[in-house]
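tool=predict chain=A
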Amino acid sequence: MEVFEFDGKKYEMASKPQKEWGNDLISELSLTGTECILDLGCGDGFLTEQLSFLVPKGKAVGIDASANMISTAQTLRRKNLQFMHLNINEMHFNNEFDLIFSNAALHWVKDHRRLLENSYKALKTDGSILWDFGGAGNCANFLDIMRKKISEKKYEKYFQDFEWPWFMPSKDQYKNLISSIGFSSYTIKEVNKDRYFSNASELIQWIDQPSIVPFMPCIPQEQKETFRQEVIDEMLERTQQTDGTYFETFRRIRVYAVK
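tool=predict ok
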C-alpha cells in the first residue's frame, strides 16, 4: 500500500460526505459500551471520536498511514480515544478488538486478502467488522477524467510507472475474497450514495482532498497547478447540473462479518 500524505486540516473542511456516510454506518452499531474498537483509516479522527463516545468503558483506537492526518486527529486524544500512525497493511494485532470499523478508507488498500486475514487475527472471538468503502462504479466521472488525463501526450511520460491507487470491487468479487478467510458469517451489500455537491467550491475541495492527491507527486512542480486546474475545469464541465449543483457517483461496498 503506497502511503499518500493528506492535509488533515483541509480534509476536515472537505470531508462532509465521508462524515455523513460514517454517521450512517455508526447508526447500524449495537454496542454495550465496553467494547474495544479499531478504526481503520481514521483520517482526522472525527468518526473515531464518535465511536469513543459509544464505549465509555471501552476504547477506540484510530490508525492512519498519513502522518498529517494523525497529527490532526491527536488533538482529540483522551482517556479512551487513541491514535496511531500506522499503515493498515502493517498492522499485526492479535485477539484485541471487539469491532473493526472503517468508513471511506479501504478502497485505498490494494491487497484485501491480506487486510481481511490481518483483521480476522485482530478480532476477539465473536468480534465483528463493519466496513464501508468505494466499490465498482464509484466516482465514475473523476476516475474517467483522470485515466484520460494521465494518458494525454503532455502528461503520459510522468505516469509511466504509476500504479492505480484504488481497489474498488464488485459485490461478487468481495464475496469471493471473504469466503475463504474463516468468518462464521458475513453480509456484503452494494450501497448507492450518489451525491450532488451544492456548489463548485464544495466539489473542488473534494477533488483537492483527497481525490487528486495520488497524482500530484508525479507532475513536475512547474506544471502542477496547470494539471490541477485542467482536472477541475473538466470535472466542473462534466458534472454541472441545470440547477447549479455538481453530480458524482458514489457507489459503496458495505461489509459486515463476525469471527
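The first helix runs from residue 8 to 14. The first strand starts at residue 36 and ends at 40.
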